[in-house]
Amino acid sequence: MQRTADSTTSLRIAIQKSGRLTDKTIDLLKGIGLRFDDYKRNLLVKCRNFDVELLLIRDDDIPEYVQDGVCDLGFVGANETQEKGADVTVLRGLDYGICRLSLAARKNGDIQSIQDFEGKSIATSYPNLTRNFFGKRDINAEIVTISGAVEIAPRLEVADAICDLVSTGNTLKANGLEELETILESETQLIRTNKELSSGKKQLIEKFLQRMDGHQQAERSRYIMMNAPEEAVPKIKEIIPSLKSPTVMPLADNGMVAVHTVIPIDEFWVVMEKLKAEGASGIVILPIESMIL
Ligand code: ATP
Ligand code: ZN
Hints:
With 293 residues, the chain is α/β, with parallel strands linked by helices. It folds into 3 domains: 11-97 and 187-218, Periplasmic binding protein-like II (D-Maltodextrin-Binding Protein, domain 2, 3-Layer(aba) Sandwich); 99-186, D-Maltodextrin-Binding Protein, domain 2; 221-286, Alpha-Beta Plaits (2-Layer Sandwich), CATH 3.30.70.120. Helix content is 26%, strand content 32%. It has helices at 22-31, 62-67, 78-84, 127-136, 170-174, 199-219, 233-239, 268-277, and strands at residues 11-16, 44-46, 52-57, 73-77, 88-93, 99-106, 121-124, 142-145, 161-166, 177-186, 188-193, 221-229, 247-250, 256-264, 281-287. The strands form 3 sheets. The chain has a 6-stranded mixed sheet. Strands 8-7-9-6-10 form a 5-stranded mixed sheet. Strands 13-14-12-15 form a 4-stranded antiparallel sheet. Strand 2 and strand 3 form a beta hairpin. The protein is globular. 30% of the residues are buried. The structure holds adenosine-5'-triphosphate and zinc ion. Keywords: Amino-acid biosynthesis, ATP-binding, Cytoplasm, Glycosyltransferase, Histidine biosynthesis, Magnesium, Metal-binding, Nucleotide-binding, Transferase. It catalyses: 1-(5-phospho-beta-D-ribosyl)-ATP + diphosphate = 5-phospho-alpha-D-ribose 1-diphosphate + ATP. InterPro entries: ATP-PRT_HisG_long, ATP_PRibTrfase_cat, ATP_PRibTrfase_HisG, HisG_C, N-reg_PII-like_a/b, N-reg_PII/ATP_PRibTrfase_C. It comes from Fodinibius salipaludis.
């Protein structure tokens, strides 16, 4: 892979072709206004309204493609980037594809703690991360690399234990396994090549990040409108954790005002209850498309 990322002018972004990250990544790209033709049937898809093309590949290949500059950016789990030891820059952490890489062994079996792994075999698709973990603890464990269905390895007596990705833990339970230790917490990340890029591409990345940040901020916020007695405005201002001062407009009814502002979604219910207690009524909440601060 000798091609540099700069031999095209479009920003080339690697995403998972088909799997757990695909829909969320496509939704995110659509959410920031990018439009694509049929991405399900093609490997390389041009964006219709932004200078971007998507390369759809296996998630395992994404860190190396970005490292080598075949792609400028990539959306991939931290688990893959760290397993490959890829030389890339993490631009953003994203709140999907959340999982952990954990050690698990038979429930009530002879492996109950980390020390019990001495001399045992561990099936995993993450040999480097697993080896590093035990190396640091001076424990000799045999790593058996397998590429899928890791959770059935102990039952098939392929290995004594496993090191695999877990989200709910249901798959482990269904296979009679018990989670013993997390060796890595993972989330989807936006990674960037460390190869030198043209100023045109750098500008495109800045624009892309600005859109992503605006979209993420908007997803975490709501536009709120309410009516309130004029004398309650100072209290309302104290209650609302606003980005900036709220808009206050007089209403036809004497002594009443309309208050418009933006609030973080996390504080939504608490703020709502407090506002009602101060006499706010007709409270309307709207989603926000994007926010440029
Ligand atoms: P590919 O064919 O692209 O190699 P895959 O089978 O390796 O696909 P998926 O199962 O689609 O990959 O998982 C993709 C990524 O989703 C993982 O690398 C990880 O970052 C994340 N993920 C989140 N939760 C889980 C989970 N419970 N099990 C596996 N992966 C998870
Ligand atoms: Zn994979």
